[in-house]
Amino acid sequence: MEEFRKILDAARLAPSGSNLQGWKFIVITDQRILNLVRLFSPGFLGNAPAAIVVCSDLDVYEKEGGELGKNYIRIADCAMAVENMLLAAHALGLGACVIKSFSRIALKEILELPERIEPEFIVILGHPKEQPKAPPKKRIEEIAYLNRYGVSWASEVPRSG
Amino acid sequence: MGNTEKRSLSNYLFELATYMASSARGCLEEPQSYGTFRLIDALGRVLKIQDYLPEAEKDRFLEKVREDIERNKFLKLTNPKAFEQFIDDLILELAKEAKKRSI
Q1: Is residue A18 included in any domain, yes or no?
Q2: Containing domain of residue A45, as a range?
């Protein structure tokens, strides 16, 4: 459980729009509940022995965050918490994967979520048996520009000396 | 569905139903290519029903199809072009096999 505490600690320290922190985390270690979650989560591949479901409190984001909070900050907050969780898991030597492909209706039923608590992401966790091949990533030059959109990053990088 | 232990056929079919229904809902919102992956993954899971047949009744060709799917389905994540080629190759194999069979 110490590993979960560290991962949750990393999550709670994530940036939060307007510092609303309207996130909720459900740690799942009960294998029966985990299996039920897996059944309704097509994105849940493999046999990870634990998961943390990251939820948002709609009341917090709608009442205190306005339209921006409801439509954007809610998701951004949870996503930033998830990134911290992934990094913490990696630092602990764990394998982790974030899942968005799941049935929210089924998850709400299985986890007995209150009406205003919305499941946003599942982070599955375990000790990896192997190092998976990394997916292809775009080069910096394909996605980053200098000062103005479209201006090559590499061509205008100031040279030192 | 990810566990390897064998459960009853009715439980397996139930789990298949949860997967396919959840996937169908996901296809309304998820990237189009996810639907392709889910269908191929579902095909592999459907073909796994053969595990419940007596050995003599198993279709060896379909067993090989399932093995190919298990081996190649994650190309979707790492090499989309190769995944596309895998599906084309699979369909071609199915077409060749269909011509041999009295269907």
Answers
A1: yes
A2: 2-130
The residue count for chain A: 161
pLDDT(B1) > 70 = no
Rounded to whole angstroms, the Cα distance separating B43 from A10 reads 39
Please say if the pLDDT value at position B2 is more than 60: no
pLDDT tens-place string over residues A106-127: 999 999 999 999 999 999 999 9
H helices present in B1-103, as ranges: 9-27, 32-47, 60-72, 75-78, 80-100
Point out the residue among B38, B77, B78 whose CB comes nearest to the CB of A42. Answer: B38
Contacts of B77 in chain A (CB under 8 A): 135
Query: What is the number of domains present in chain A?
Result: 1
- List the CATH number of the domain containing A26: 3.40.109.10
Q: Give a yes or no: residue A141 inside a domain.
A: no
A3-62 pLDDT tens trace = 999 999 999 999 999 999 999 999 999 999 999 999 999 999 888 999 999 999 999 999
Query: Looking at beta carbons, which residues of chain A come within 8 Å of B15?
Result: 39
Q: Kindly list the domain boundaries of chain B, sorted by start residue.
A: 9-100
Task: Give the side-chain half-sphere CA count within 13 A for A69.
Answer: 19
Q: pTM here? A: 0.83
Contact B2 A136 (CB under 8 A): no
